[in-house]
């Protein structure tokens, strides 16, 4: 842990102000820059409010914590910018650690809803916990915007309080399949999934889209550490690419063990794998790894990038801008003078505006109309953007 | 519960049979199963020894094991290794470091086992507590040890530290055999032979067998029962510590506070499978379990791996309620 902190600090010191690092590697598309009309948490600086809070609920120190931390810092940044600019409206941010666990999330979310000051929430980050806790938000009428849960089924429960600030896996799955078969030119693909809501849903979407190119598939379990049997199966299938549908915690040792066994296939992981923790965990096995993600690269959002780095001490990660956007929308509602949950829910439901990452206007299920899927790759031990899948 | 429902609802196949995969993977599964099974067997010996002597299922043994994993992990850490790329070490250096980690892991696990015995079980024995109280205490001790690790290290896995990467040495029918698998299987067999010889051929071992057979008569014959019990826990702990190092080499991210739970349950299964209280049964049960689990994964897929292991146990117990070899420690042949 110490070593990791040290390297982060070093990284922060040595990085240039040029945010487009890794651009010289010939990365495909240019990252989008900040849209001129993007909503800004600062607003006009004249907002007045008192006694309202927003909540972040998601993993902070639990499993796959890095994915939650990325979002949390984005949320913190938006709230900080808002509060600095609006002296008359200090919004309190309350943090709740669900540890990313579907078992623990309902209890934690019950704490969130029982705090009457909280009128809106960002979270939950993962699909499994979102499914488990969705009814509780619904019951309390507390609007929650997830910046990262991508399981398509989440929007089909009829929850009126659920909003998704990114594309779902019904979009990511086919996009990933397209990337694997067209960009990576793989003719034989293995899809390995974990036992999470997210992993299972995404694996199904990818497998369906791959069709006959799906050569082998297998399951692993959350917190599994030894993948020898799966590796053996993949090795004998001899695929061109492997899609791992799950989170980095298992993906890193899995990639390492594939590499040890001499499997040369390209390793493709989704948003749950796309984190520096994967690169650190998998070491040289991550050199040829690719990621798909319905998240927008933060490289060219210069202001956001720099403020984030100043606040968090590290560069924005997966879903940091999405977390920032989600929070900004909730803050806009508060700035309009909304003081209760029903008001904020109504505000989000009718919201129509540009954010940093995309345009936000939800349908009645809480899904966005237009979303994007990007691919990323590992370059010199760092995750850099690759191309957008259109 | 939730789990099963979604499993059905998401339209994925509920259960697949893929016998072709078993045919393709047969040797691979067998070899890998032997190395996994060796680890089960080493841990299973701890369950079996304690059961043989005390008629107690020491559920804290899985934590005795995971303490050993942390012991090995922090030995690597103390030697200056850090998470990241695998260092290129010379053979001599590697053996030295691994031997050191082995000793530390064995001592940590051995000490943990003895402490559990002293703190949790001995006071109960003094008061003549009924067997059920021991069982509950065992589960309690398991939780306490787990939570100690949780408070100390948090809920996440430690980042992988490796000293060597597995490399293929030769192949059997197309399945590769790695240096790591060879080390694990050979070292485990050697350790089990030592344990077996110790129990069956030495004076102290005779004491263990005597207490297992009839504690009261053994005491009358001048065997120090308390010392024998401590020795039993110590041997079980030492073997679990060795298993811990092998496990960490095989699964470098395995050091986490809950990491011993499933492996402990599997090892216990292995012990019951072979015949609890029987040293050779633990070895046989461990190896069979490791191999069958892999076959099960090939046939049914990874999600069914653990289920196959436990179904195997149920089926064997239906036909042989005392396990495959089914003898107790006291009746061990000499």
TrEMBL record, chain A:
Question: Where are the annotated segments for Disordered?
Answer: 17-44
Q: Which organism is it from?
A: Solihabitans fulvus
Can you name this protein? Branched-chain amino acid ABC transporter substrate-binding protein
Matching entries from Pfam families are given as: Peripla_BP_6 (PF13458)
Ranges of biased composition (kind: Low complexity) = 27-36
- Residues forming the Leucine-binding protein domain are 54-381
Keywords for the protein's UniProt record, in alphabetical order: Signal
Give the family this protein belongs to, as stated in its UniProt record. Belongs to the leucine-binding protein family.
TrEMBL record, chain B:
Keyword annotations for this protein? Amino-acid transport, Cell inner membrane, Cell membrane, Membrane, Transmembrane, Transmembrane helix, Transport
Q: So where does this one cross the membrane? A: 37-57, 64-82, 94-120, 132-152, 172-199, 228-248, 268-292, 304-325
> Pfam families in the record, alphabetically?
BPD_transp_2
What Gene Ontology biological process does one annotation of this record name? Answer: L-alanine transport
Please indicate if the UniProt record lists Membrane as a keyword.
yes
In the record, what terms sit under GO molecular function? Answer: L-isoleucine transmembrane transporter activity; L-leucine transmembrane transporter activity; L-phenylalanine transmembrane transporter activity; L-valine transmembrane transporter activity
Lineage at the top is:
Bacteria, Bacillati, Actinomycetota, Actinomycetes, Pseudonocardiales
Q: Which organism is it from?
A: Solihabitans fulvus
UniProt keyword Membrane present:
yes
Topology with regard to the membrane?
A: Multi-pass membrane protein
Cell location = Cell membrane
**Sequence similarity:** Belongs to the binding-protein-dependent transport system permease family. LivHM subfamily.
Primary location group? membrane
- Tell me the domain of life: Bacteria
What is the protein's name according to its record? Branched-chain amino acid ABC transporter permease
Gene Ontology CC? plasma membrane
């Amino acid at each position: 842990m110490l070593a990791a902190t040290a390297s982060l600090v070093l990284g922060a010191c040595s990085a240039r102000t040029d945010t487009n690092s890794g651009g010289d590697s010939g990365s495909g598309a240019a990252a989008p820059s900040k849209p001129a009309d993007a909503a800004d948490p600062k607003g006009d600086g004249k907002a007045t409010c008192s006694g309202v809070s927003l909540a972040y609920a998601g993993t902070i120190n639990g499993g796959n914590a890095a994915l939650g931390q990325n979002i949390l810092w984005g949320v913190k940044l938006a709230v900080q910018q808002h509060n600095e600019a609006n002296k008359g409206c200090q919004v309190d941010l309350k943090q709740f650690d669900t540890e990313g666990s579907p078992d623990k999330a309902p209890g934690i979310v019950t704490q969130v809803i029982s705090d009457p000051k909280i009128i809106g929430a960002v979270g939950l980050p993962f699909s499994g916990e979102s499914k488990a806790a969705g009814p509780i938000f619904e019951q309390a009428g507390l609007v929650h915007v997830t910046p990262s849960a991508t399981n398509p089924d989440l929007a089909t429960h009829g929850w009126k309080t659920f909003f998704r600030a990114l594309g779902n896996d019904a979009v990511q799955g086919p996009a990933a399949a397209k990337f694997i078969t067209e960009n990576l030119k793989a003719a034989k693909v293995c899809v390995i999934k974990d036992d999470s809501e997210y992993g299972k849903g995404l694996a199904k979407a990818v497998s369906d889209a791959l069709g006959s190119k799906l050569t082998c598939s297998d399951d692993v379990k959350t917190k599994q550490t030894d993948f020898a049997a799966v590796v053996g199966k993949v090795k004998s299938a001899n695929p061109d690419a492997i899609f791992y549908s799950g989170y980095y915690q298992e993906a890193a040792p899995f990639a390492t063990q594939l590499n040890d066994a001499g499997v040369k296939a390209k390793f493709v992981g989704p948003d749950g794998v796309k984190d520096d923790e994967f690169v650190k965990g998998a070491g040289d096995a991550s050199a040829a790894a690719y990621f798909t993600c319905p998240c927008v690269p933060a490289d060219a959002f210069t202001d956001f990038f720099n403020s984030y780095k100043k606040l968090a001490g590290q560069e924005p990660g997966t879903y940091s801008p999405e977390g920032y956007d989600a929070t900004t929308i909730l803050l806009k509602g508060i700035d309009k003078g909304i003081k209760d949950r029903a008001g904020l829910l109504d505000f989000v439901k009718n919201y129509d505006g540009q954010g940093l990452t995309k345009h936000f206007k939800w349908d009645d299920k809480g899904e966005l109309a237009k979303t994007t899927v990007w691919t990323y790759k590992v370059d010199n031990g760092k995750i850099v953007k690759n191309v957008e899948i259109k | 519960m939730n789990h099963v429902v979604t499993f059905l609802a998401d339209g994925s196949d509920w259960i697949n049979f893929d016998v072709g995969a078993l045919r393709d993977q047969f040797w691979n599964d067998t070899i890998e199963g032997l190395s996994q099974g060796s680890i089960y067997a080493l841990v299973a010996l701890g369950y079996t020894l304690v059961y043989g002597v005390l008629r107690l299922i020491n559920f804290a043994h899985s934590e005795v094991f995971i303490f050993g994993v942390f012991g090995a992990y922090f030995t690597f850490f103390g030697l200056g290794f850090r998470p990241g790329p695998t260092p290129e070490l010379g053979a001599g250096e590697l053996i030295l470091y691994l031997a050191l980690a082995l000793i530390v892991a064995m001592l940590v696990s051995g000490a943990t086992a003895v402490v559990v015995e002293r703190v949790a079980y001995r006071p109960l024995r003094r008061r003549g507590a009924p067997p059920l109280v021991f069982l509950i205490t065992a589960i309690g001790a398991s939780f306490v040890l787990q939570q100690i690790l949780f408070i100390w290290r948090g809920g996440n896995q430690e980042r992988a530290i490796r000293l060597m990467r597995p490399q293929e040495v030769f192949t059997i029918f197309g399945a590769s055999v790695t240096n790591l698998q060879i080390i694990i299987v050979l070292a485990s067999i050697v350790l089990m032979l030592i344990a077996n010889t110790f129990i069956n051929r030495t004076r102290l071992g005779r004491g263990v067998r005597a207490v297992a057979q009839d504690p009261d008569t053994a005491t009358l014959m001048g065997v120090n029962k308390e010392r024998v019990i401590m020795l039993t826990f110590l041997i079980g702990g030492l073997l679990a510590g060795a298993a811990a190092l092998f496990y960490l080499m095989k699964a470098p991210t395995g050091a986490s506070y809950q990491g011993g739970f499933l492996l402990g349950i599997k090892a216990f299964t292995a012990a019951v499978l072979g015949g609890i209280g029987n040293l050779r049964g633990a070895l046989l049960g461990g190896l069979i379990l490791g191999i069958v689990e892999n076959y099960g994964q090939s046939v049914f897929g990874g999600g069914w791996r653990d289920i196959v292991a436990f179904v195997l146990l149920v089926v064997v117990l239906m036909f042989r309620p005392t396990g495959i070899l089914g003898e107790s420690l006291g009746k061990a042949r000499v």
